Amino acid sequence: MAEYSISELNKVKRGPKRANYDIDTINSILDDSFLCHVGYVYKGQAIVIPTAYARKGDVIYIHGSLKNRMMLSLLDAGVASVSVTHLDGLVLARSAFHHSANYRSVSIFGSVRKIDDSDEKMEALAYILNHMVPGHWDNVRHPNTKEFNATLVLEIKINTASAKIRAEGVNDEQEDHDLPIWAGVVPIKQVAYDAISDTNLPLDVKVPEAVKLYVSKNKSI
Amino acid sequence: MAEYSISELNKVKRGPKRANYDIDTINSILDDSFLCHVGYVYKGQAIVIPTAYARKGDVIYIHGSLKNRMMLSLLDAGVASVSVTHLDGLVLARSAFHHSANYRSVSIFGSVRKIDDSDEKMEALAYILNHMVPGHWDNVRHPNTKEFNATLVLEIKINTASAKIRAEGVNDEQEDHDLPIWAGVVPIKQVAYDAISDTNLPLDVKVPEAVKLYVSKNKSI
Question: Matching Pfam families, A to Z (chains A, B) (predicted)?
């Protein structure tokens, strides 16, 4: 079981029994989402911005416009912190104190590099789109020179990372078990609904299989 | 229409037409979620951590253990950046370049204060629980002295904030409209499912109305 080494940066201090440094576990949490929150330092203060991403091996790709302050600040700093969180449920305990959530979260600490090579950059853009809807890159018009040049793509190489996972029921104090108070878990899930086609489509253009598959894999259970 | 004043910190630089500084709009986005991503600076690097929150007026409450590094770092810095994001849909365009997401996000910049007053602290804890499931504080056992003293509650007073909202269809280039390529929007929503009661409950303890109401308001459409 390959793990990220534990350092001051990625060590999970609170709730260490929920901590996980296993690379496969971390990758599976990263692959289940395409929205991350990136942190960067601007004039001494941390700023947090949501953005799309994709993973390839031990790197994360993000993209934005050439003038994006977050992207430029990350490039300037050379390091990035990225958080990915899935909310899986509300844990409603008998006591206020033991209320919690079921979740899977990952914190990444990585080094930032601008992707200059054209082939590598185009591949990264394909990864970002395919990470959202697998296989959909092959269905769309690829970037022309103007669009390609207007896009900044950064690679964040994962130097260290950690996951925190809570996936269980209520943990109340033993002496609270006989109280006439309800406790339980409310499952939470992010779901997709049937695609709404653009109104300007030529008549014979149908929803691609990749999009249908995405919806069917993410629809409400 | 009351707005946050625009400063270097909260000014939306990319996609300014999606920017919104209206306080009611920002508050409604904050009230629709209870999971935020907090940024703080640790040894010169930004770190991003997901946590629960509640809003009361122009303040955000977060809580954690007395030794929580994020909480202590925020207190030490005196300032916090908080991001709240709702993903509402995938915008799948004809061109890779015009792919986007429908979302509502808020960035807050605030000053951090530890809540020492007992009444104020208990009220903040009630706000955090009720922000998750409205009214549920009245159903549970409140913190005892030991639990209360083991909890650190911080107030983040919103000094400035901004929202970004995208809530529309595909924006492709005009010349791409006749291409035989599908485009459309896949709606995305975070939904709740029926509560799963703890197995150790006394027989006559039923799911509270507050929990049922939460589920019914957040179930899949």
Answer: Pyridox_ox_2
